[in-house]
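re: ur question from earlier - yeah i can do the single chain one, its not a big deal. heres the input i used so u can compare w yours
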Amino acid sequence: MKTMNTLAERLNHAMSLVGMTQGQLARAVNMAQPTIWRLTSGQAKGTSRIIDIADALGVRPEWLANGDEPMRAQAVAPYDSRSNIPPESQWGTVDVWDSHTPLRDDEVEVPFLKDIEFACGTGRIMNEDHNGFKLRFSKSTLRRVGANSDGSGVLCFPAKGDSMEPFIPDGTTVTVNTNDKRIIDGKIYAISQNGWNRIKLLYQVGPNTVSIRSYNSAEHPVEEKSLSEVDIIGRVFWWAVLDY
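and the output i got, formated as C-alpha cells:
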C-alpha cells in the first residue's frame, strides 16, 4: 500500500474504501460539507471531530490522525446511508438552558471546575476550585459509561496544552469518572504526579509499572513510571470542543 503521510490522503483512502462521498460523510458526522472538503483537500490539517469521522469510516482514529497502524481494529461492513442516517423528521433539537432552567427528570448537574487546569503536556499545579459552575448530563449517559447516575464522582474541567491533539485540543472541557481508576490499556485518564494534573493515555506494562503516553507522540515522548508515583484521579469518558 502506498504510504499516506497526510490526514487528507488517509481520509480520502478510507472514504474510497467504503464508497462514501463528502456529502454522505458530512451528514454522518453532522458537519458542514465545506469542512469535509477542506479536510480532504488538505487545506485543513486537523479537526476536533476526528473520532466521529473515524467511527463513520470504520477506521481507528489513531490511524486517521497520525497514520499509526493498523488501519482498522476489525473489519467493517460497507457504508449504508439508509441505515446510518435517520430521516430529517426524526432529527432532534438542541435545548437552550442556563443556571435557572429546571432540571429534567433524566438530568443531573456535575461540577465544572473551570479554574483547575489538567495539562495535556508537562503538567501544571493548580489549587482546588469550588466556583459553583455546573454542567448537565443525562442519567442514561452516566449509566452507559459506568458512572453514578446521580452525578456523584463526576467532575468536569478544562485541559491545557497540545500533547493530546488532535483529539483533545487546548481548551477542551473533559469529564472524568473519579470512581473508575482501573487501567484499561489505551484509555484516557486524569492523573496527578506530585501535584501536577495531567490528561494522558495509560498502559499497564508491568505489575507495578505504567506507561504514560500522548496522542501527539512526536512532541511528547512516552514516560514509564511506577504506579506508586501516579495518582489516578479517574477515567475520562467525555470531552467537548468547538469545531471552527
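The two ends are 33 Å apart (CA to CA). not sure if urs matches, ping me
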